[in-house]
């Protein structure tokens, strides 16, 4: 198995375990999708993907419809996607994806977390190059031959495909998202969930004591309401 498989396995163990945080994240995704492409899933591919993810997270349909309606209101603030980069203790690179309606607040909060935990908030581009920006799709495994599907989907950008207990998972470069989404839909294949990851090109092994130092910073960052995803180079 490749890097995407190992990365996914590690993240599944711990990320977004809190249901409330997951729903908040999806709610922001809905607002950004609606503001960008309108409230109709039929004509808004990004919104279609978010609704699939909401279903996968067992988010009630009423919640989804309410979020779409709210996002359509002109008075509803839009969220800006902002990327933060920095270093945790022991040379661990951290990449933070946020969605914020108040950039000054978010910058101040993120900086305070790094300062309190002996980390360093970096400048734009300081660690982003250490991660591969990827997209992923999950479809049902029933009736699918993984090897055959891999050969067929290579032309659309898929670089890694594997089956696990949740179905068949495909990974590809970030820019291949639209082409893969369209092809899966054209084939009538149900997309259970989709999303984006930043996979570290190289990871660093730490001692248990050092891991605790890094985890302290990661926990503070992940608890912030503006934070959508956190990626790092610490081996898990």
UniProtKB/TrEMBL annotation:
Belongs to the TACO1 family. The keyword DNA-binding applies. Transmembrane segments: none annotated. Pfam families: TACO1_YebC_N, Transcrip_reg. Its main location: cytoplasm. Residues 4-73 form the TACO1/YebC-like N-terminal domain. It is found in: Cytoplasm. One of its GO terms (molecular function) is DNA binding. Residues 79-233 form the TACO1/YebC-like second and third domain. This is Probable transcriptional regulatory protein RF683_07000. Keywords: Cytoplasm, DNA-binding, Transcription, Transcription regulation. It comes from the Bacteria. NCBIfam families: PRK00110.1 (NF001030), PRK12378.1 (NF009044), YebC/PmpR family DNA-binding transcriptional regulator (TIGR01033).
């Amino acid at each position: 198995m490749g890097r995407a498989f190992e990365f996914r396995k590690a993240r599944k163990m711990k990320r977004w375990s809190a249901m409330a945080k997951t729903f908040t994240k999806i709610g922001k995704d809905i607002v950004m999708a609606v503001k960008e492409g309108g409230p109709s899933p039929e004509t808004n591919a990004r919104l279609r993907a978010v609704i699939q993810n909401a279903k996968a997270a067992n988010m009630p349909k009423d919640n989804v419809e309410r979020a779409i309606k709210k996002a359509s209101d002109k008075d509803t603030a839009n969220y800006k996607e902002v990327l933060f980069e920095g270093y945790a203790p022991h040379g661990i690179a951290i990449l933070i994806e946020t969605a914020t309606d108040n950039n000054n607040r978010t910058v101040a909060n993120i900086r305070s977390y790094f300062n309190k935990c002996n980390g360093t908030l970096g400048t734009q581009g300081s660690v982003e190059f250490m991660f591969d920006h990827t997209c992923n799709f999950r479809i049902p495994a029933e009736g699918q031959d993984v090897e055959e599907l891999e050969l067929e989907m290579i032309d659309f950008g898929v670089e890694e495909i594997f089956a696990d207990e949740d179905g068949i998972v495909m990974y590809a470069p970030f820019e291949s998202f639209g082409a893969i989404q369209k092809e899966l839909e054209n084939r009538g294949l149900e997309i259970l969930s989709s999303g984006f990851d930043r996979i570290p090109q190289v990871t660093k092994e730490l001692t248990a004591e050092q891991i605790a130092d890094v985890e302290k910073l990661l926990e503070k960052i992940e608890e912030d309401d503006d934070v959508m995803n956190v990626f790092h180079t610490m081996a898990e």
